[in-house]
Design goal:
- By secondary structure, this protein is of the alpha+beta class.
- The two termini are 13 Å apart.
- Helix 1 runs antiparallel to helix 8.
- A hairpin with a 7-residue loop joins strand 11 and strand 12.
- The chain is globular and about 65 Å long.
- The chain has a 15-stranded mixed β-sheet that branches. A four-stranded antiparallel β-sheet has the order 17-16-22-23, covered by helices on one side. It has a four-stranded antiparallel β-sheet with strand order 20-21-25-24, with no helix packed on it.
Amino acid sequence: MPSSFSILALILAFAAILLTAAVVHCGSPASLLTLERAFPVNQRVELEVLRARDQARHGRLLRGVVGGVVDFTVYGTSDPYLVGLYFTKVKLGSPPREFNVQIDTGSDILWVTCNSCNDCPRTSGLGIELSFFDPSSSSTTSLVSCSHPICTSLVQTTAAECSPQSNQCSYSFHYGDGSGTTGYYVSDMFYFDTVLGDSLIANSSASIVFGCSTYQSGDLTKMDKAIDGIFGFGQQDLSVVSQLSSLGITPKVFSHCLKGEGDGGGKLVLGEILEPSIIYSPLVPSQSHYNLNLQSISVNGQLLPIDPAVFATSDNQGTIVDSGTTLTYLVETAYDPFVSAITATVSSSTTPVLSKGNQCYLVSTGVDEIFPPVSLNFAGGASMVLKPGEYLMHLGFSDGAAMWCIGFQKVAEPGITILGDLVLKDKIFVYDLAHQRIGWANYDCSLSVNVSVTSGKDEFINSGQLSMSSSSQNMLFEPIPRSIKALLIHILVFSGFLFFVT
């Protein structure tokens, strides 16, 4: 008769086989998991090859984790006499190349200039070196055909064109300032750092669809503010935000904090910045832009006599948030009472003057001491309170006094009211696409921010001191299945009984 130790050994061996089978067969009961070496034995592998393999692996791992935060460095300022735009850097292709692209919440597509663009700027007054995307030099580039699902969906939204002769998905965009670009779509690798906590910052990548510009017009051709392309942060399917969230890499929310003073800069994350003072207003549904329901404007606490109907959303009017616009534009029947109220409030302390058709004021002291606060009042009881520097522009000096002018521009009616960088700066803005709302709060964008690493609001990353959220860890490491736990308990109990009776 076999000893209890022999029986125990057999039981434990059987348990090990069951555990191995459970792990190997998990999700694939009809096949075994075959493990092979990624690289042959005794063969030297270059560091670049290993790094590329690791990046691809990180990308696959992260596709199963919702809640990662992608962080971008922001450059530029809202000052129209310096830069007049905010931009960031993206890495595309294999090997990756870096491109400077304008941050634009008023459009959807990420596009960069193709090397085949003949009339595009070759130098930039922004102090950056321009780059050109060469599809033939990237080992991972593929053209987007007319039959590609993305192309067929875009053709229905006028964001794409298809030529049966070339079977190539192309585009032609025109922006509000009269500029435009034409090109074609490609699919290639997009590289980024995804932060899941203080112990996990992954260099990752994903294959996305973006545009390769072969023709540009208008302001896009001017060398003084030339840039490599435009990074569209719209909510349509082809935006990078939508593409990465559909892959499960990032949550369906992004945030920015654009610094207005000094050298500008700021913060841009694919994720949710957390700040207790943020207030939200719902997005107008079924719109191609980030439309908010502006209801009224107050100057120094007094409501202006403006018919709310001029802000109502329709095909040719409404109120949109657009980081790609430098100034702010206000429809005429709102602009006139706004300027009149400002002038009436400060006329005794300033000298009102006209300069090139703009209402300006000669000021001998600080504007914060003279000019009133302005409140833009939105649906849901959300007000955006503007300091003088968020509706005025400093245009130099005249007769020893500083000249400040109204930064809002008049728009003929019917028209679109556009909230540009002039009012977006020095605030946290959260574009919560999952809940169809936009939130904001006044903030010093040179300070650190807290960023959620989950879909909830109870865990966050603080000023570079990153803390791993427990839910993220749980998603990375799956627990032992309950059935296996039960089997082990039965085995252990049975083994203990044998020892007890022997």
